[in-house]
Specification:
The chain is built from 15 helices and 27 strands. It is an alpha/beta fold and 522 residues long. Strands 12, 13, 14, 15, 16, 17, 18, 20, 21 and 22 form a ten-stranded mixed sheet that branches. Helix 10 links the parallel strand 12 and strand 13 (284-287). Helix 4 crosses helix 5. The chain starts with 7 loop residues before the first helix and ends in a 6-residue tail after the last helix.
């Protein structure tokens, strides 16, 4: 079935009809069938229409992983509106900027976020209607989300919502400047749901996907929310990442697929041995969002007996672009083959294709590639070579067509004119038996331009020092690749998606050097 002319609403309604009494959302308090999700999201769409929202209006959604998030997301789409999911760890002023930038007319938030929500609303004069999820007394001027759930007003006809309409604006977290809003249409996302179904060999009516990655993020929104609701699989929302909560949810609900980021798999390794059996129902795991250290992948598979299939894809591509073949040959360090309907190439700075094995920028051409960046035509133009989207990832492809990400283009370190890829150094550090996590960044250096520094977390009771870490690296790396300094810390900063936040490490390093060495910023 071609999804090129279908919307997410079309797919969700077909799934609701085909799998009406099958479980769609599994929570401790309630199991939602596909028919119930369909009816609830219809009511939310009806309520939004009754409150004056029309096709094309943007609505901010500020909510943790839950059935409420899922049915509200679908309800906003059915109202013909565009979802603007909000990052739960962003500062309220950053979220206010996003709502203002997107021109959001509505704001729906979970009651536990009342305090930041009040700050956000104080800075967003364009918000006309506010809906609060929860039973507490409503602040003045706020409407109850439950009122939406009881509406019976007519909703827009599906014919009035074409596939070219915007379904979601996802704001990407840049390392400099303001976030950019990737405009994703119904076609972009609908096509990607079908690509995910085929590439990951997920079985409608049978697979149950545990969603602990935040649903506001592109990876979880696609694999853990839109795909299951549009193709008849169940989703199991877990509101926050806690290894015990994850293990209990896998066991309780019989999860069959676990999408996560590498740091989450690393933390799951710290569970007590008796929790290992809780993961028995899993068919496999999917890793994305950041480079998966080979040592972590092997250690997890050895302990839990579950294969981790690494894949990748930027927000701007809806986001899944590639994955190692499910049930086929996985290659450690590779993000696999392009998924159906996606083309990938390695291009140089002029947009010319690089030979096999050579490093260049990974570029993507697909019907799932975004429409562009919201209100940023110049940024949009700079992100393409013709119709090839520039991902910003440096990579290579081998003779068999497996793609490898060497590093983010912006993370590459240049020391005296020589390129150093932090991921290469990190892979070596992860093989040390006394290291739990590692991150390598480039810092400004007066003579060399940049130098590499490493931030590491050691096992309990470890006595590792800088000298022994440097000696270990010298055994496996070129002298220019060995970090000049090692920071041993209790934990590494992470964002809400569980990815190591290198921007925070750079800030910490700059502050430390400013105090201890008197160096200026780059």
């Amino acid at each position: 079935m071609s999804t090129d002319h279908l919307t997410l609403i079309d797919l969700a309604r077909t799934a609701a009809s085909t799998y009406a009494e099958h479980p769609a959302i599994l929570e401790a308090s309630k199991t939602w069938t596909f028919a119930e999700v369909d009816a609830a999201s219809d009511r939310i769409a009806s309520g939004l229409a009754m409150e004056g929202f029309v096709k094309g209006d943007r609505i901010g959604l500020y909510c943790a992983n839950s059935a409420a998030f899922a049915v509200t997301y679908m309800g906003i789409l059915k109202a013909g509106c565009t979802v603007v999911p909000l990052h739960l760890l962003y500062h309220p002023s950053e979220l206010a900027w996003i709502l203002n930038d997107s021109g959001a007319k509505g704001f729906i938030y979970l009651n536990v976020f009342s305090e930041p929500a009040s700050v956000i609303l104080g800075q967003t004069p364009g918000i006309e209607k506010v809906f609060r999820m929860g039973d507490e007394e409503l602040p003045e001027g706020h409407l109850s989300w439950m009122n939406l759930m009881t509406s019976t007003s007519p909703i827009p006809s599906p014919d009035l919502i074409p596939a070219e309409d915007l379904a979601s604006i996802l704001y990407t977290s840049g390392t400099t400047g303001r976030p950019k809003g990737a405009m994703l249409t119904h076609r972009n996302l609908a096509v990607n749901t079908e690509s995910v179904r085929q590439a990951m060999k997920l079985v409608p009516g049978e697979d149950r996907i545990l969603v602990v990655l935040p649903m506001f993020h592109a990876f979880a929104a696609m694999v853990g929310l839109l795909f299951p609701l549009c193709h008849g699989c169940a989703l199991i929302p877990v509101p926050k990442f806690d290894p015990t909560l994850v293990a209990d949810a896998v066991k309780s609900f019989g999860a069959t697929v676990l999408p996560a980021v590498p740091s989450m798999f690393q933390v799951l390794m710290r569970l007590p041995e008796e929790k290992t059996a809780d993961f028995a129902s899993l068919r496999f795991c999917i890793s994305g969002g950041a480079a998966m250290p080979v040592a972590v992948m092997h250690a997890f598979s050895d302990r839990f007996g579950k294969i981790i299939y690494e894949g990748d894809g930027p927000t701007e591509c809806s986001p899944v672009t590639c994955v190692n073949p499910i049930g086929g040959e996985t290659r450690a360090g590779s993000v696999g083959f392009p998924v159906p309907r996606v083309e990938m190439k390695i291009l140089d700075e002029e947009g010319n294709e690089m030979p096999t094995g050579e490093i260049g920028e990974i570029c993507v051409r697909a019907p799932s590639v975004m429409k562009g960046y919201w209100n940023q035509p110049e940024e949009t133009a700079a992100s393409f070579f013709g119709d090839w989207f520039r991902t910003g990832d440096l990579g290579q492809v081998d003779a068999d067509g497996y793609f490898y990400i060497v590093d983010r283009k912006k993370d590459m370190i240049i020391v005296n004119g020589m390129n150093i890829y932090p991921r290469v150094v990190e892979e070596v550090l992860y093989t040390h038996p006394e290291l739990i996590e590692a991150a390598v960044i480039g810092v400004h250096h007066a003579r060399s331009g940049e130098i590499p520094e490493a931030w590491v977390v050691t096992t309990e009771g470890s006595s590792l020092d800088t000298a022994s870490l440097r000696a270990f690296c010298l055994e496996h790396l070129g002298r220019h690749e060995v970090p000049r300094k090692f920071h041993v810390v209790q934990e590494l900063p992470k964002n809400a998606n569980g990815k190591i936040n290198k921007r925070e490490l750079r800030k910490a390093g700059e502050a430390e050097r400013g105090v201890t060495e008197g160096e200026g910023k780059a």
